[in-house]
Structures are given as structure tokens and as C-alpha cells.
Design brief:
Blueprint (H helix, E strand, L loop, with lengths): L1 H15 L12 H11 L4 H14 L3 H6 L2 H8 L6 H16 L8 H4 L7 H12 L8 H10 L9 H13 L4 H6 L3 H16 L17 H4 L17 E11 L2 E6 L10 E2 L2 E2 L5 H6 L5 E6 L3 E4 L4 E11 L16 E5 L10 H12 L5
Helix pairs in contact: 1-12, 2-3, 2-8, 8-12, 9-12
Length: 363
């Protein structure tokens, strides 16, 4: 069964799989690693422009390692899950400092680098070094849960361990690898392609699937049932107020701490959402001649939903400097409106400010 799986999957991938993604057709571990990190919990269509911009700005691991953290965060802004960007930078520096500028040549050692887990390490090793090793990202879990009819929540440890065993047992054999040195690239990419294009979460295209003859979910008529859905949890609700302080073509921004939500990005100063409008500016030692409450809006994170209550404030004619701001002065800066696009801003903040610029409200 495993032999048939590899044989059919490889043949399908070479004829029908994806071959024109910008990080394919290379054995450069830097390019493969960058794409794998970006693709974690993010769709291919969203990743492509970010990947291309990163490659233009940081063409190799040395360029990325030497770049200021703020430049890295600025290019990453909008892609989400910002810990990935911080780990990306830390990993590049580790490769330069600890590995002489070369990525480790096997999955075991790749997995010791910041931000590289077992599946990502395996993907890099498989694509770049032809290592015979299993991957198990979200799409692949779905493929194997259906193919082997594995029940249970695939995010739980016991089920995940079962999936790892099946994924390892399903690898091309050593004999296949000897006969076809590129088989691991086609096999690994085939699993990714199958999960992304045919064996999708909703309405899988079983009729055109290359492995349907032995897929237990297809045989048993359980493709809609498997994999089991994750237990639903109530999404926590949070609120925050954001101050948009404007003065002579400048906006007051605050650099967020390196850890936590939007770590290392520039954002709008926050206050408690129930703060009266007139106190928004007082919170930062500013005096406004005019304030307006804007329409609240929501931003959904993986683990909670955030409702943002923005207030725009136009300051008086006197010029306020950072030294005159009463609180958190080490992280607050006046940024000119024309320079906003150069900074790493959280997606909802960037969207909010872009809308205000379009409406000529930032003056």
C-alpha cells in the first residue's frame, strides 16, 4: 500500500503538480527555508509577493542576517504570525554565526535552528538534500487521515504520533530512492500539492485523485467525516482603544515590545476601550483641539477576536515633541505621513491609516 502510494503520487506530481512557484526548481536551502516559514498557516497566493520582495531585499542568508530587525519586520508586515519573522531573523543569524553561513545538511540539525520544527526541517532536507524523511504539515495530516482512515483530532498528540508513523512508513523505499535520486522532491511536493489542490478540507476532488484506489476514506465513503473536526472553543473577545494623534503631517506611533502580539511592529498608542474620548490625548500628555470617535472594527487572531475603538485627534498649533509626551517616551515617535509605508505596521492599523489617508483625514 505504501509502495503504491509513493509510486502513484510521484507520477501524478510530475505530470499534474505545481512546478512554477518561485521557490521551486532549486536546491538552495535558503530559498526553500524562506518559503517554508512563510507558508506556515498562510496560503500560497498570499505568500508569493512577500517571498519575492524578501528575495529582492535579502538575496541570501548573509543579507538577511546583517539586516536590521526593523527592516525584516517592515517587509513582513501584513503576513501575520509575527513570531515567524523574529525567528526568521534569529535563524539567519544562527546560520551565519554557528554554521559558517551554510544551512545544516540534515533534518535533525536543521530542527535545532530557531523557528524550524520537525516538518519544516524535513521539507528542507527532502528538497535540498534528498533525505528520506517524512513531513507532516496541516495539509499532509488531512491527506493521511483520509488515506489511512485515522480517527481523532489530528492536533492531539496521540493522533499526531500515529500520523507520523504512517507518514514514515509511506515514504519511498530505499530501492526507489536509489533508482530515482529525485524521488523525494517529487514525493514531498506531491503531498503538499495533493493537500492544497485536490484533498482539500471542503469538497475534495476525489475523482481526479491519484491515490483514491487505496484511500480508506474514499472507499468507506468517509471523506467528509475525516479528518475529525477540532473541538470548537469559544473565541475570546478583547477590546482596545487606539489613538490617532495628528500634528503637522505627522502621526504618533508606538514601537511594540519584541514579544507578544504584533511584536516589534509600529502601531498606534493604545488605551482601554472604555476611556472617554477627551482622555485619549490626556493619557499621553497631549492637548487636542478636536477629536472624533471613528467606527469600531474587528480583527480576528488565531486565538481571539479584537475589537478596536479608534479615536482621531488633531493637536493644537504648538509642536509637540517626544520629550513632551508624558508616558512611555522610549517607544513613542512622531512619524511623517509620507514615511508610513516604510514601517512595519500591523495589518489592521495599516488598513485604518490607509483609509484615513484616502479620505484626507490625516492632514
Amino acid at each position: 500500500m505504501a509502495f503504491k502510494l509513493a509510486t502513484r503520487l510521484v507520477a501524478w506530481q510530475r505530470q499534474h503538480g505545481r512546478h512554477d512557484l518561485p521557490w521551486q526548481n532549486t536546491k538552495d536551502p535558503y530559498r526553500v527555508w524562506l518559503s517554508e516559514i512563510m507558508l506556515q498557516q498562510t496560503q500560497v497566493a498570499a505568500v508569493v509577493p512577500y517571498y519575492q520582495r524578501f528575495m529582492d531585499r535579502f538575496p541570501d542568508v548573509e543579507a538577511l542576517a546583517c539586516a536590521p530587525a526593523e527592516d525584516v519586520m517592515s517587509l513582513w508586515a501584513g503576513l501575520g504570525y509575527y513570531a515567524r519573522a523574529r525567528n526568521l531573523h534569529a535563524c539567519a543569524r544562527s546560520v551565519m554565526q554557528d554554521w559558517g553561513g551554510r544551512f545544516p545538511p540534515d533534518a535533525k540539525r536543521l530542527a535545532t535552528l530557531p523557528g524550524i520544527g520537525p516538518s519544516t526541517a524535513a521539507a528542507i532536507a527532502s528538497f535540498c538534500y534528498a533525505e528520506r524523511i517524512a513531513i507532516l504539515d496541516g495539509n499532509v495530516k488531512r491527506v493521511f487521515a483520509r488515506y489511512f482512515a485515522i480517527e481523532g483530532d489530528v492536533t492531539t498528540k496521540p493522533v499526531e504520533q500515529s500520523l507520523w508513523k504512517q507518514a514514515t512508513d509511506a515514504l519511498p523505499t530505499a530501492i526507489q530512492l536509489k533508482r530515482d535520486p529525485d524521488i523525494m522532491t517529487a514525493y514531498t511536493q506531491g503531498l503538499m500539492d495533493l493537500g492544497a489542490t485536490l484533498c482539500t478540507k471542503h469538497q475534495p476532488a476525489c475523482l481526479t485523485c491519484p491515490i483514491k484506489k487505496d484511500c480508506q476514506a474514499h472507499i468507506q465513503g468517509r471523506t467528509r467525516e475525516l479528518p475529525w473536526p477540532r473541538a470548537r472553543k469559544t473565541t475570546p473577545e478583547r477590546t482596545t482603544g487606539m489613538l490617532i494623534a495628528c500634528h503637522q503631517g505627522r502621526i504618533l506611533l508606538e514601537k511594540r515590545p519584541e514579544s507578544g502580539i504584533w511584536g516589534g511592529l509600529w502601531s498606534l498608542p493604545e488605551v482601554q476601550s472604555d476611556t472617554p474620548v477627551e482622555q485619549y490625548c490626556d493619557r499621553f500628555g497631549l492637548k487636542a483641539k478636536q477629536t472624533h470617535s471613528l467606527t469600531p472594527f474587528q480583527h480576528v487572531f488565531t486565538h481571539f477576536r479584537l475589537t478596536i475603538f479608534p479615536v482621531i485627534a488633531y493637536l493644537g498649533s504648538n509642536r509637540f515633541t517626544k520629550s513632551q509626551i508624558a508616558t512611555r517616551t522610549d517607544r513613542l515617535e512622531w512619524i511623517t505621513v509620507k514615511d508610513l509605508h516604510t514601517l512595519g505596521l500591523p495589518a489592521p492599523v495599516r488598513k485604518l491609516l490607509k483609509g484615513l489617508l484616502t479620505d484626507n483625514m490625516l492632514g
